[in-house]
Each structure stands twice: as structure tokens, then as C-alpha cells.
Design brief:
CATH superfamily of the largest domain: GAF domain
Strand content: 5-15%
Oligomer: single chain
Structural class: alpha+beta
Number of domains: 3
Helix content: 40-55%
Mean pLDDT: 87
CATH architecture of the largest domain: 2-Layer Sandwich
Bound molecules: fe (ii) ion
Order of helices and strands: HHEEEHEHEEEHHHHHHHHHHHHHHHH
Number of strands: 7
Distance between the termini: 72 Å
Largest sheet: 7 strands, antiparallel
Shape: elongated
Length: 510
């Protein structure tokens, strides 16, 4: 097959390959490699448009190792690339030393001087897509007489030949494809960046409502990404068959960044509730206690003054008893207000304070607590009533509703379904749907472990202190034994030390 036929076929293959590449850095390498391959160029450089200038982004050279800086140059006639970008003309020069003074551009030898390489022949083409958008400039340097042999450092001009008309045609055809691919890739990148910024803005919105869980979503996402990489490394067993590529990792990262977004729909006083009673509710009881205290003292004085009892010692002793009992009751209330597990008998004591008339010092307030207050203080574990707990749990449905409204790209379409299942348990006791075992998406089972681990080890939850890493792992183990979380994933979470090496861990330990 002749050189031209071969090159035409290669060009078709190259067009396909460029159209499929989404990573800009890989795409640029491919463009240079293919262009040099098609034209037997010993070296090549690539510039991309950036603002009103050109950014030197990549160079390849078979003869010398080149260190280059990503300098920005103006789009002007002071360089070949600048001229090509400005005019959208092609520059094809057999020997740059013989460029006359009348040329519309200057030859900039700075790069040659710094690298010790000599540019002789050159073909520079603008990268313009079908809409006329300039993406950059491709510069091919030193067409080799012997296509297969690199020129080496001290080559002679005889080893270099001029780029021909066919080289120019191929380079221009490739330039069109390359420009389209670059424009597309940059568009994808800008869409990705837009999505990233929206996701991060959403995370900030959740955290601004609940500063006590600040950083939770970001940490859970970081753990999930590490766990996904660990799963991907596994070669045997169930996990050997599961692969997490770049897109799948991005999907689980977004799902975990947004898993608690629905908390935005939960009432703030419940979301940040640290005690069983809201502060104003406890204040009301404290004031009631103070009033009782005063009333007891006043009643005692009144008795003494009116001579209702001749024995003032007895009056004082009764007052002391009454005040002591009042203080004990207030202490019981304050302790019960904490979210820790109620000790045996405390529930009954609290209930009694709502039904038993005080009978203290003849005061007319019948009970220290209302039924409603006693009910709240009687919560046996945590700080939330059943209704409040149900409202918090609704955050999962809110998250799902919100995520379903986003038009995810095909690679990210499972974000809603993954986030929706982060509170499901293997034995079916989770919420909101009570899914069991494999009904729960694999990624959600990963997220559950990361979510619990962070909730345990973070020092920022209102209702409990941070536990050390070892204790958190023990708690997770016991959850695994109880059939709540995926034990194989937990084993990998532990053995791969998914939680280690994360810089942010250092910052959040008190
Ligand atoms: Fe959650
Ligand atoms: Fe969470």
C-alpha cells in the first residue's frame, strides 16, 4: 500500500480514536503522536487557545529530552504559532533559517536555544473546527528523510526534508478532527466542572443548615472512593467481578457527597437537636422550679409570721426537706434531658413528676412537669421522639426526590438510587424501604459502612462524642455480626485501611 493510502487509512482510524477520547491530556498526546506519525515529523508542539492568547501545552521530541514550561504567548505575528492562530493560515517552511525578512511572522528561537534542538523544516496548522472555532495550533517540526530513524541531538540538515503538500493535507484533515475533539472535550470538562460546582454548592447548603455535621459528606465521599478503589483491586471472590472505573467512581462520589442532601427538608430545631427538650422548654421548667423554691420559702415565712406553728425549728426542717426534694427533682429532669440511655427507674421517676401533685409547702402548682414534657424527657435513647426520628428519616426520601429531578448523564444515572439506599440494612430493618441483602445496591452497602464510620469517629455530632478509630471498627464489626451491614465489604474496609491517610482526619480530632 502506498504512503498516501496508508496515511488515509490511518487518518480514518485516528479520527475515530480522537472522537472517542474524553480526557483532554490523553487526547492532546494522541493528536501529537498521530500527527507526527502521519507526517514523519521528528518533533511537534501543541498550543491551545486560552483567553486572548495561546498556551503552550505539549511537546514531543524523539531526539532530545525537553523540559518545557506551559508559557502563554500572545496571538501575534511575533511567533509562528501566534501568526497561525491570528491568520488561520498554514505555515510550511522547508528551512526556517531561510525565512526572509518579508515573512509575516518572526521566528522565535528561544525554545531551540534552551533545548539545544534545531528546528529546520516546519509545518504549522491552525486547529479549527467545522464552526470556525480556533482551538489551538499544531506545529510539526523536522520531517525526517528516513521516517523510522530519530534525528538525534547533533543531526545534519541533510537528514531533514521539507513537509510536502500531502503532509499539509493530512495535517489539516487531522487538525479539523483534533479541533472538534478538543472543543468537545473542553465542553465536557466545563459541564463536569459545572456539575462539580453545583454539587459542592449543594453540600455547602446542607452543612450551613447543620454546621455540627460539617465535612461529613466530603469525608464519606472520600472513604467511598477509597473503598471503591480497594474493591477494584480485588481479584478474587465476589468483589473480583466488580469493577470501578473512572465513571463508576465518580458516580459513587456524587452519590455520597449528596446522600444527606435531603436534610435540607428537615426542620432545623430537629436537625440540630442536642437534648430531648428544646432550650426554651427546659428554661420554662427551670423557671417553674425557681418559682416553687420562692413559694416554699414564702409559705414557711408565712407560717412563722402567722404563728400557724409554734415550732419554728420544725418549719425550717420541713422547708429544708422540701427544697432538697425540689432540687433532686430538678436534677432528675436535667439528667433525663441528656440524650444518653435512660438508667433503670428514671423513666418512672419522670412520669411521676407529671402526675403526682407536688404537695410541697402547700403550693398551688400541681406538678413539676406537664405530660408533654414528661413524654419528651422519657425518650429512652437519644434525643429524638418517634415523630422527630421519623422526620429525620425522611431526609432519605427528600434526597431521592431532589436527585431524581437532576438530568444525570448516563454514566451517573444511578446516583439517586445509590443515595436512596444508604440507610438500608442487610437484614431488612433499615429505612425507608426495608430492602434486604442484594436488593440494596452494592455501592449503597459501601456507603452505609463509610457513613456509620464517619458518624462514629467525627467529633462534631451534637448527641455523642467521637469514638476512637479502633472502637468505631469494633462497633461496625458488631453491626456486621448482627446482620446489619455487609461483612465482606467491612472486611475490605478494614484491611485496606480505607480510613487511613486522609489528611482531613487530622483536622477533626479534638
Ligand atoms: Fe443519612
Ligand atoms: Fe450521612
Amino acid at each position: 500500500m502506498g504512503r498516501i493510502n496508508q496515511a488515509t487509512r490511518r487518518l480514518l482510524d485516528v479520527s475515530m480514536a480522537l472522537g472517542q477520547e474524553r480526557r483532554l491530556d490523553v487526547l492532546l498526546e494522541k493528536i501529537l503522536t498521530y500527527a507526527r506519525d502521519l507526517t514523519s515529523a521528528d518533533a511537534a508542539s501543541l498550543y491551545l487557545t486560552e483567553g486572548k492568547g495561546l498556551r503552550f501545552v505539549l511537546t514531543q521530541n524523539d531526539s532530545v529530552d525537553i523540559e518545557f514550561k506551559r508559557v502563554k504567548i500572545p496571538i501575534s505575528n511575533k511567533s509562528v504559532a501566534g501568526y497561525v492562530a491570528r491568520s488561520k493560515n498554514v505555515v510550511r517552511a522547508a528551512d526556517l533559517d531561510r525565512i526572509g525578512k518579508n515573512a509575516p511572522f518572526s521566528i522565535n528561537r528561544k525554545f531551540d536555544n534552551a533545548s539545544g534542538y534545531r528546528s529546520v523544516s516546519m509545518l504549522a496548522v491552525p486547529l479549527v473546527d467545522s464552526h470556525g472555532t480556533l482551538a489551538g495550533v499544531l506545529q510539526l517540526i523536522n520531517r525526517r528523510k528516513n521516517p523510522k530513524a530519530a534525528l538525534g541531538k547533533d543531526f545534519s540538515k541533510k537528514q531533514v526534508i521539507a513537509f510536502g503538500a500531502h503532509d499539509q493535507e493530512f495535517a489539516m484533515a487531522l487538525a479539523g478532527q483534533a479541533a472538534a475533539a478538543i472543543v468537545n472535550t473542553r465542553l465536557y470538562d466545563s459541564i463536569d466542572n459545572l456539575l462539580e460546582s453545583i454539587v459542592h454548592a449543594s453540600v455547602s447548603a446542607i452543612e450551613s443548615r447543620d454546621p455540627t455535621t460539617s465535612g461529613h459528606s466530603v469525608r464519606v465521599a472520600a472513604y467511598c472512593v477509597e473503598l471503591a478503589k480497594a474493591v477494584d483491586r480485588e481479584e478474587k471472590g465476589v468483589m473480583g467481578a466488580v469493577h470501578f472505573g473512572r465513571d463508576a467512581i465518580r458516580e459513587i462520589r456524587f452519590a455520597s457527597l449528596l446522600h444527606d442532601f435531603g436534610k435540607i427538608g428537615v426542620r432545623e430545631d430537629i436537625l440540630v437537636k442536642a437534648h430531648k427538650l428544646q432550650p426554651h422548654e427546659l428554661d420554662k421548667i427551670e423557671t417553674r422550679g425557681e418559682m416553687l423554691d420562692l413559694q416554699m420559702r414564702f409559705t414557711a415565712l408565712n407560717r412563722k409570721f402567722n404563728g400557724l406553728s409554734s415550732d419554728t425549728v420544725k418549719i425550717d426542717a420541713r422547708l429544708r426537706d422540701d427544697l432538697k426534694r425540689l432540687e433532686e427533682n430538678m436534677q432528675t429532669i436535667r439528667k433525663a434531658n441528656n440524650p444518653s440511655v435512660l438508667p433503670k427507674g428514671r423513666f418512672e421517676e419522670i412520669s411521676r413528676l407529671a402526675v403526682e401533685p407536688l404537695g410541697i409547702g402547700g403550693c398551688d402548682i400541681l406538678t413539676l412537669l406537664s405530660r408533654e414534657e414528661a413524654e419528651k424527657l422519657g425518650i429512652r435513647k437519644g434525643s429524638l421522639s418517634k415523630a422527630e426520628r421519623r422526620e429525620i428519616q425522611r431526609h432519605v426520601a427528600h434526597t431521592y426526590d431532589f436527585l431524581c429531578k437532576i438530568l444525570w448523564t448516563p454514566e451517573l444515572k444511578r446516583v439517586p438510587e445509590i443515595a436512596y439506599a444508604h440507610h438500608e440494612k442487610i437484614d431488612g430493618t433499615g429505612y425507608p424501604r426495608g430492602l434486604k441483602g442484594s436488593e440494596i445496591p452494592f455501592e449503597a452497602r459501601m456507603m452505609t459502612i463509610c457513613d456509620i464510620y464517619d458518624a462514629l469517629t467525627a467529633s462534631d455530632r451534637p448527641y455523642k462524642k467521637a469514638v476512637p478509630q479502633e472502637t468505631a471498627l469494633e462497633i461496625l464489626q458488631s453491626e456486621g455480626r448482627a446482620g446489619l451491614i455487609d461483612t465482606e465489604l467491612l472486611a475490605l474496609f478494614t484491611s485496606a485501611k480505607v480510613f487511613a491517610g486522609q489528611d482531613f482526619l487530622k483536622d477533626r480530632r479534638k
